[in-house]
Structures are given as C-alpha cells and as structure tokens.
Design goal:
Layout: H1 3-26, H2 30-33, E1 48-49, E2 63-67, H3 71-81, E3 94-98, H4 115-127, E4 132-136, H5 143-149, H6 152-159, E5 162-164, E6 172-175, E7 185-187, H7 190-193, E8 197-207, E9 211-213, H8 215-218, H9 234-244, E10 249-258, E11 271-280, H10 283-293, H11 302-309, E12 323-326
Parallel strand pairs: 1-6, 2-12, 3-4, 3-8, 4-5, 8-10
Antiparallel strand pairs: 2-11, 6-7, 8-9, 10-11
Helix pairs in contact: 1-5, 4-6, 9-11
Length: about 325
C-alpha cells in the first residue's frame, strides 16, 4: 500500500472516529429526530399550494462549468464567472442550502455533498451579507449520523451555518397545482417558508432507479411520508419536484463522480475523478451536463426531458452558452 493510500485510509478512519464521538456526545437517540416511517402523510396544518419561488428573473439561464481537481477552487472560479455570490445573495438574506446528506457514510465515498463544498458556500453567502445560512436535508438513514458521518454538520457549523434536522413539526402538506403525485404530501417546507434564497448542492452519482442523482433528484430530500411509493414512477415525481422547487442557484459537484452502485456506493472502485464543478440557475441544464460526466446524455435520463417539457429548464445546456473555465 502506497503512502498516499495509507494517508487516505488514516483520514477515513479518523473522520469516522470523530463522527462517532460527536454522535455519542450529542446524546440523542435516533427516534428523537425521526420516525422510521417518516413524518405522517396527513398533517393538521393548513395545506400549502406550491412552494416559494426563490429564483431571480434577471439571473435566469446562466451556467458556468469549471474544471480542476480542487473543488473549492473550481467553485470559486464558477461563481466568479457568474458574477460572484453577490449576484444571488444580498444583505439580510436568509439562505437555505439544500444539500444531500442522505446516507451515513464518510465524504470519501462521495454519496453525499462534500463538506468542503458546504463550508465554502456558507462562507460565500455570509460574505455576501446573508444574515443566516441554514443547511437541511431529510436523509434516508438516521439524520444525526448522516449529518455527522458525512462531515456536513461539522463543516456547516464551523463556517457559521445552522443545521436543520427533519422533525415532524417542520413538515407541511404541499400540493403542486395540476400535479399527479404531489397532492397534500408532507414536505420539509417550514424552513423554506422562512427563507429568502435557496441554493441546491448535490454530487454527481449514478442511481439504481432514476439512472442518475444530481440536482433534480436532490429535491427528493424535501419529501416526507412514505416517499418510497414514488419509486413506482421515479421520473414522474422528479419532474414534479422540478416544477415545484425554484431555486436561486444550483451547484453540481462533479469533482468525483459515482459511476456505479449509486446512490449509496460504498467502494472507492465506484468512483471516478471527473474534475468538474457546475454552477448556474437552470437545474435541468445542470443535470443535462452532469449526465455527460457519467458517460450518459440527457436522453438517457427520462426525467430531464419531462422536466424540460414541463417548463422547469432546458435539456440543451449549450443553448445557455455556458462559461467554461479552468481552475
């Protein structure tokens, strides 16, 4: 085993030990935060029709693609190409970062949003004048262990953000007008209702049902209830999520892509260095380009065409004249 491999293994074990200690120190049982069945499908609170629109019309149709092996450097390069975080976050904004903390795995396995990306986006938002930055997701695995073992909780808090874990009182029934699936379905919506900006951060991964998990599939983490019923038409539900969720900005991390065994992975052999960071305001276009990092095209992912046809963005990312930068 090489010295580099030894270092990676030591780092993996050290992160795991620190995360386990943090979970133990928190002193919370999993049931404190999560019923395994998820929040109930019917809530007593008043149903919400649609979600807040966080998009900025004058920033529509922007896409930057930065290449390089250092995700912080490529993120900065992509954001600079878009005019800086100040184009998206203003003084006093309350910003939600919807990340992917779906699984209780360390960042080296690339199943979750990388903590370095989380911390840098938090810093950029605060530097742009945000009054608060909040990081949220409704993980598949236990939320406490998912946020800790992924390194996201520590990175977010160290950079000055709050972590919002899913609890039943934060869910509200939401309906997508004209929707087939999203009809008074519980959503992790209460934090969104108090926010002024929404940024989606997701890794590039294969997915055993959807074909790929990137920005659009990441909104799945806003669903409560027995959301696995939507697996019967995964393309349909992802399309409706694309119609419902209108972010300010999306950041798709293709520094390392999970080429096989997604969305959980579990082995370094599932991964490939693809050295790309995508940032922009069109989630459909971001996913369409992200598909190329998985050796796919937008045509291989039916939910992209469905989302585009529903008006959520364009599947032809070249129409946006993406800015390409080497970082």
């Amino acid at each position: 085993m090489s010295e580099a491999e030894n270092t990676t293994r030591r780092d993996f074990l050290l992160r795991g030990a620190k995360a386990a200690a943090a979970i133990a120190a928190a002193g919370f049982a999993a049931r404190t935060f999560r019923d395994p069945a998820g929040p109930p499908a019917v809530s007593r609170s008043e149903p919400l029709v649609g979600l807040p629109d966080f998009s900025i019309p004058e920033q529509a149709g922007k896409l930057a693609i930065a290449t390089g092996a250092n995700r912080v450097r490529t993120l900065r390069a992509a954001m600079d190409a878009l005019g800086g975080m100040g184009k998206f976050v203003e003084r006093g904004d309350r910003v939600i970062l919807k990340i992917n903390a779906g699984f209780s795995t360390p960042p080296i396995l690339s199943a979750t949003t990388h903590p370095d990306l989380v911390s840098e986006v938090v810093r950029l938002c605060l530097a742009a004048g945000a009054s608060a930055v909040m990081v949220m997701d409704n993980p598949v695995n236990d939320p406490v262990s998912s946020f800790e073992l992924s390194g996201i909780a520590g990175a977010a808090r160290a950079a000055g953000a709050a972590v919002i874990l899913p609890q039943a009182n934060l869910f509200r029934p939401v309906t997508l007008p004209g929707g087939e699936f999203i009809r008074e379905w519980p959503f992790f919506s209460l934090p969104l209702e108090g926010a002024t900006k929404l940024i989606g951060l997701a890794p590039v991964k294969s997915h055993n049902r959807a074909g790929a998990s990137m920005i659009l599939k990441n909104w799945y983490g806003l669903l409560g209830g027995r959301r696995n019923v939507f697996h019967q038409d995964i393309n349909g539900i992802v399309k409706e999520l694309a119609q419902l969720v209108k972010p300010t900005l999306v950041i798709l991390d293709g520094t390392t892509a999970m080429m096989t065994n997604g969305p959980t992975g579990g082995s370094l052999s599932d991964l490939k260095p693809t050295n790309t960071m995508i940032a922009g305001t069109d989630p459909v276009a971001a996913d369409a380009f992200g598909a190329t990092l998985l050796d796919m095209s937008a045509d291989d992912l039916p939910y992209i065409a469905k989302a585009a046809a529903a008006g959520a963005g364009t599947a032809n990312y070249e129409l946006l004249n993406p800015i390409r930068i080497e970082a």
